[in-house]
TrEMBL record:
Organism: Micromonospora endolithica
Sequence ranges assigned to domain HD in this UniProt record: 83-180
Keyword terms: Hydrolase
Signal peptide start-end: none
Name of the protein in question: Bifunctional (P)ppGpp synthetase/guanosine-3',5'-bis(Diphosphate) 3'-pyrophosphohydrolase
Listed pathway(s): Purine metabolism
Amino acid sequence: MDVDAGHGAALGGALPTRPGELPLTRRLRSLLTWPTTDSDPVAQLVRAHRTIHSGADPAVLRRAYTIAENMHRGQFRKSGEPYITHPLAVAQICAELGMDTTTLVAALLHDTVEDTRYTLQALAEDFGPEVAHLVDGVTKFDKAFYGKAAEAETIRKMIIAAGKDVRVLIIKLADRLHNMRTLGVRSAASRERIARKTQEVLVPLCDRLGIQTLKRELDDVVLLHLEPEEHDRIARHVRDRPGWEAYLDAVVARAKTALRRSRVDAEVTPRPRHLYSIWKDTVAGDHPSPFDLPRIAIVVDGPPTDCYAALGAVHGTWRPVPGRFKDFIASPKNNLYRSLHTSVRGPEDRTVEVLIRTTEMHRAAEYGIAAEFRFPRTGSGSSARNEQLDWLRRVLDWEQDTADPAQFLESLRCDLAEAQIQVVADGRQVVLPAGATPVDLAYELGTERGDRCLAARINGRLAPLSSELDEGDVVEIFTETDATSGFEADAAPRGPRREWLGFVKSPQAQMQINRWFADHTEPGISIIDKVRLGRATIGLALRTHHRGLASDLPLLRLSEELGYPDLETMLVAVFDRVIEPDEVVRQLIDLVDHRQ
Ligand code: MN
């Protein structure tokens, strides 16, 4: 078997091309042993991958598996299985999601650098920089070296890597999903700890990236580890519902007839809720037994306007339940989810939930950012992807403003928090965290608007800047420029108030306010320090001219000559670069040489 065949094709030619034999080829000669029969350990992976990407070349997957298997040989999972079962399962999850070959290769190798003697450099030589970047992005910082900060630093590193290539996050999510599936063998305490962390950061991240197929399973497995009895109770309820299937079949058939009559081409299927979602509704509604309504999905084969035609057909058949209609096509959710939601009084007067969406919306809703890898040729969801990446870019923005990884993680958690509201400002919908204030809104509309905001009008009434906004509020923000236009044009900007930090909700606003104060007050550097550092700066500049100062007298004279009230003020100006040290030194030398 020619191990290099298809190499460039699969990796997009990412591998360094240089004369002579690749180290990989040497390494593989000693490893390649299995015959291509049913015992092929990657057969299932290759099959799953080629079901979605029929043209994919499996050779590189085999090579990656061989290296990973060899490197992990002798290592075992807590369950006692050989370690290689884990990366293989992670690659399988990625394959079923529809990811490309490069992602699968990186998934197979994702733990080699962290846990074996295989180095990132060797990996880059063997599989190219793209795979190396993906593996590096999911490689943890060493706890022994970084101590407590390791976890936060690791997430921060992963987010930065994802900014360059979002596939890093998809591998990480698949990795966590498999680890969560196999948590059973761990102690109760570590199961709970890992499940909580998954729920805090990875599940919301998955939601934000719109990958519902992964999120559903993560949700359920988190519930299993955090509330095992509740999980069992809901699972028993779902397994044992007499007449449920027949009822849904009847609903689907009626809906199909209604759609045909309205000449809407659509697929109609039962759409069961996942366990976690049933559990959440049960708890939220304080229901004594699991609360779960029959639900169907209508996926129309046409433009978005067909969704409204389908809605008309459904409402014409069954009476809608008041207050349950939601138009996420006109106002998509913050993860860009689009669909129409309604509830109707179905057959036997039972409430039925109905989701209506186009094929493209359905793909985006199920696969989110992974959709463009699963459906590469349709070009679907590429604008959605850009918007999702916008979010990631904004997160990276705060990352640059946050020196402390723990604070970054906290902001990320905050931003990922599930509760969101939509308000209307500047004639458009703006998504904000629940509990947000006009100041949060002002910063969402732009840094300048935030820094200069003075007052707000909510639904036509003036309101304090600390007011909590509600879903659907129409908000106007007044800024300094509006209030003072025409006069005081030269006045220095007033800037944000410190007390805002006490009530703003969004990390965006928090970061911007902190940034403003950092820019305007240089925290940590006192005037005394500035004087000292200004003097030291002049000392250094003088030394480059082989000069020095025997006393402060020449400096004092110069500060008078330049019009400063005292020497200290000039030194602060030097530190603040209001005057260049070289200029001070030039004048100083001039002054001394002329007076002597
Ligand atoms: Mn792993």
